[in-house]
UniProtKB/TrEMBL annotation:
One GO CC term on file: outer membrane-bounded periplasmic space
InterPro entries in the cross-refs: Asp_de-COase-like_dom_sf, Molybdopterin_N, MoPterin_dinucl-bd_dom, Mopterin_OxRdtase, Prok_Mopterin_Oxidored
GO-annotated molecular function: electron transfer activity; molybdenum ion binding; molybdopterin cofactor binding; oxidoreductase activity
Biological process, per Gene Ontology: anaerobic respiration
Full protein name: Biotin/methionine sulfoxide reductase
Record keywords, A-Z: Metal-binding, Molybdenum, Oxidoreductase
Cofactor: Mo-bis(molybdopterin guanine dinucleotide)
Enzyme class name: oxidoreductase
Occurrences of domain Molybdopterin dinucleotide-binding (ranges): 644-756
Domain Molybdopterin oxidoreductase N-terminal: 8-48
UniProt keyword Oxidoreductase, yes or no: yes
Phylogenetic lineage: Bacteria, Bacillati, Actinomycetota, Actinomycetes, Streptosporangiales
Keyword Oxidoreductase included in the entry's annotation: yes
PANTHER family: TRIMETHYLAMINE-N-OXIDE REDUCTASE, TRIMETHYLAMINE-N-OXIDE REDUCTASE 2
Length: 789
């Protein structure tokens, strides 16, 4: 029988699945998406894999002993008992009720960070939040792993809404092609990262748009420890630097501008405050506290710190001052200790050039990080599932999850506040994989041992599901009706169900509706509607909003039948801070000064040593080695216990940990482990060879990885992308499969933002002696009967 083609959408794009006998047997790119991502090739195996959660399951020890802290949560030998839907719903409803009445709703941690799947209605996190809100709320998380420092810092520098517009109203690739002569990107421009847009994208436009800009004459400078962070087909120059030293490079560039009279003082005077203090710091008149007698941040100084030749920095600064220049700071650069500094310094550098607010110039953060960044904006929004209101005020910055669970009642600093962690009794996670995404996974396992109960909704038996007491099987996007689009997308697309649910998997909406029934709030949760009816309502509400702006889209049935409608009201001609530049009095920024704050009195008043009042050079552990107290650290004469800096960037074989068992992802593994890239020179020193399984260790833990040699890396730097399913089944290493978060340190960027710092960690790479432990990440846990296909 011939396969039928069904349309689908994922965060990694829109494509078609080939279905035969109710099975996904292949994928096909859409004809109008010539640059479709190869990661779509993961879907057929992942959809029917034996790690799919096929039935509700309860951890045996929880079932036998009842709720309570249990250090054995996550033990690879722990057994699960598969149960009926009615049994699990009764158990879960009773436990939610117990926690709520005994400890209050703030004892439920429902932050549930994670990407889940595309689809505007069945978005896992929105569904969970709506459900918990109808129950009286939950402790939530704020901000992201992606750009936690950016989200807290920029409201201080340019106020809101200008800070929000940094994500949407930046020069489009089209504007860059037309106006930008030089694009300097700290953190490169990885085309493989642009395969991803939150909510999916009709076609992959970023890669082709970069190439078009390059062909039209835009020059690219890629500042990065990896040469191949920028596509070979771009006219680009690689500036190789030591990881974690971008701020030093930026200060060195500013030094050239200030000392050679190239800084635009008219711009600085009119539009910014604090340029004088920054200038004194850069030229060495003042230290980071504003006291006389600092270090001169000259290009020679920057060379000593970053490894970038001073002459190159001088030449680059002059070129930037001489032409229409756009500065991009990739999100990776701020996902490290003191991640606020390269953002602030990069923005200050753009201000010194005086081009902020001009078409195709100024500052941005996100090109090469996400596919829809620079791909247009949809200011009128998209159809959405309403989440209701959270009656609980408690929240944490998202990457503080281990601290939250380990240290109830303890205090911490965040953005000028002194906060206290609430006492969490129940953790509820749907649509995320903290045992992929969080740092120092051994510590996270200890943290997950603390609450009374952990609930996870999952499509697959991830490491997070294996730390849960109650595991609820969720349908995948291929098993339910939905529609998809991301911010700035080209079209809204129907994604009709392609195959029947795997095993007993159900749509989460229906699970919550049944739980709500048991808790007496079914009507509040559903408002009398099925999920299919919510699709129509969300769409029609959006349609009505558009109609008020005289924009017409077809009715829901018509849309569903067509399968796709062009996105109304897309804009691609934005200039960030353009209005402010035109009239800084009438369009004053919502900052204390009304201007750009190169020095922030507010931030200075917090008194944080790790984030003072203007951008400064602070060397993080990637530069200095791990701090004392975090295992062995460097001391004179001892040699370096952790001589290499590991870059834990985004994988180019999948999205995070999703579909890691898929065909494309597995095809890149070496002896079943994720690939670690290393410069041949470093491999020789370490005594390891291409194709070896090697042991990577840090003060926090160890993992195995398969060795790939490449001269695209700066010597001294190794790269192991995130997303290999965490596999703690070997007694010999923390992770047998190659998850870099077995190695990373669980520390915030600074007291200001407390953002994720997972990008960089100092490590050692050695040959692995002894018998190789098997990879067991893709086996379902003890007691679970896999259902194939
Ligand atoms: N060391 C290091 N760590 C990092 C980073 C780094 O640079 N370095 N980057 C960080 C960043 S930026 C991010 S965004 C995070 C990403 O971390 P996550 O977003 O947590 O990673 P995903 O693998 O996308 O997890 C999504 C989970 O949702 C499940 N899922 C999919 N669809 C559904 C559904 O419909 N319902 C339910 N219930 N589940 C579903 C998938 O099976 C998967 O397990 O990782 C962070 N971690
Ligand atoms: N295929 C694919 N695409 C994705 C994702 C995925 O999992 N898979 N995840 C998506 C998500 S959620 C996010 S938030 C974005 C993240 O987007 P980014 O944060 O931009 O992506 P990364 O791949 O983590 O890092 C990009 C590059 O930064 C460089 N880099 C690392 N440290 C430094 C440094 O100190 N200085 C400089 N100059 N460069 C450095 C590294 O060489 C790395 O390859 O990607 C998105 N895109
Ligand atoms: Mo992210």
């Amino acid at each position: 029988m011939a396969a039928t083609l069904r349309p689908t959408s994922a965060h990694w794009g829109s494509y078609q699945v080939e279905v035969r006998d109710d099975r996904v047997v292949g994928v096909r790119a859409n004809p109008d998406d010539p640059a479709a991502a190869p990661v779509i090739g993961n879907t057929p195996v992942a959809q029917h894999h034996r790690t799919r959660v096929a039935r509700p399951a309860v951890r045996r020890r929880w079932l036998e002993h009842g709720p309570g802290p249990d250090p054995r949560r996550g033990d690879p030998e722990d057994a699960y008992v598969e149960v009926e839907w009615s049994t699990v719903l009764d158990l879960l409803a009773r436990e939610l009720e117990r926690v709520r009445t005994e400890h209050g709703n703030s004892a439920i941690y429902g932050g549930s960070y994670g990407w889940g799947s595309a689809g505007r209605i069945h978005h896992a996190q929105s569904q969970l939040h709506r459900f918990l809100n109808t129950l009286g709320g939950y402790t939530r998380s704020v901000n992201t792993y992606s750009h936690g420092a950016l989200e807290v810092l920029f409201p201080h520098l340019i106020g809101t809404p200008a800070a929000n517009r940094l994500f949407s109203r930046v020069p489009s690739w089209k504007r860059i092609r037309e106006h930008t002569e030089l694009l300097v990107s700290f953190g490169g421009l990885r085309v493989s990262n642009t395969w991803t847009s939150s909510g999916g994208r009709t076609a992959q436009t970023a890669g082709p748009a970069m190439r078009a800009a390059s062909d039209a004459g835009t020059e690219f400078v890629s500042v990065s420890p990896l040469r191949d962070d920028t596509g070979e087909d771009l006219k680009s120059t690689w500036v190789s630097l030591r990881p974690g030293t971008d701020t030093a490079v930026m200060l060195g560039l500013m030094h050239v501008l200030f000392s050679e009279g190239l800084a635009d003082t008219a711009f600085l005077d009119r539009y910014t405050v604090g340029a004088d203090r920054l200038r004194a710091y850069v030229l060495g008149g003042r230290d980071e506290r504003g006291n006389p007698g600092g270090v001169e941040r000259s290009p020679e100084w920057a060379e000593r710190v970053s490894g970038v030749p001073a002459a190159d920095l001088r030449a680059l600064a002059r070129r930037m001052a001489d032409r229409r220049t756009l500065i991009n700071v990739g999100w990776s650069v701020q996902r490290a200790k003191y991640g606020e500094q390269p953002l602030w310094a990069g923005f200050a550098l753009a201000c010194c050039l005086g081009q902020v607010g001009l078409p195709g110039a100024g500052f941005a953060s996100g090109y090469g990080s996400m596919g829809n960044y620079g791909g247009g904006a949809t200011p009128l929004g998209l159809p959405r599932m309403p989440q209701g209101n959270n009656a609980v005020r408690e929240s944490i910055p998202v990457a503080k999850v281990s601290d939250l669970l380990l240290h109830p009642g303890e205090s911490y600093d965040f953005n000028g506040e002194h906060r206290t962690y609430p006492d969490i009794r129940l953790v509820y996670w749907a649509g995320g994989n903290p045992f992929h995404h969080h740092q120092d996974l051994s510590r996270l396992t200890r943290a997950f041992g603390r609450p009374d109960t952990v609930v996870v909704h999952e499509t697959h038996w991830t490491a997070t599901a294996r730390h849960a007491d109650i595991v609820i099987p969720a349908t995948t996007v291929l098993e339910r009706d939905d529609f998809a689009a991301s911010h700035g997308d080209l079209a809204l697309r129907a994604m009709p169900r392609a195959v029947a649910p795997h095993g007993l998997a159900r749509d989460e909406y229906d699970t919550y509706a049944d739980l709500a029934e048991r808790l007496g709030v079914r009507e509040e949760f559903t408002e009398g509607r099925t999920s299919r009816e919510w699709m129509r309502v969300a769409y029609e509400r959006w349609r009505a909003l558009l109609a008020r702006r005289d924009l017409e889209v077809p009715g829901f049935d018509d849309f569903w039948e067509r399968g796709r409608i062009d996105m109304p009201a897309r804009v691609e001609d934005e200039t960030h801070l353009g209005e402010f530049r035109e009239d800084p009095e009438a369009n004053a920024l919502r900052t204390p000064s009304g201007r750009i704050e190169l020095y922030s009195e507010t931030i200075a008043s917090f008194g944080y040593e790790d984030c003072p009042g203007h951008p400064v050079w602070l060397p993080g552990p990637a530069v200095t080695g791990p701090a004392p107290g975090s295992g062995r650290h460097r001391s004179a004469g001892e040699g370096d216990a952790w001589p290499l800096v590991l870059v834990a960037n985004q994988p180019n074989t999948r999205l995070h940990s999703q579909q890691d068992m898929g065909g494309y992802s597995v095809s890149r593994k070496i002896n079943g482990r994720d690939p670690l890239r290393m410069h041949p020179r470093d491999a020789e020193i370490a005594g390891v060879r291409e194709g070896d399984v090697v042991r990577v260790s840090s003060p926090r833990g160890s993992c195995l990885a398969g060795l790939v040699l490449s001269d695209a890396l700066r010597p001294g730097v190794v790269q192991l992308s995130t997303g290999a399913w965490y596999d703690p089944s070997s007694a010999d290493v923390t992770c047998a499969h190659g998850n870099p978060n077995a190695l990373t340190e669980d520390a915030g960027t600074s007291s200001l933002s407390q953002g994720c710092t997972g990008q960089l960690v100092r490590v050692r790479v050695e040959p692995y002696a002894g018998a190789l432990p098997p990879v067991r990440a893709f086996e379902p846990p003890v007691g679970v009967e896999p259902v194939e296909g």
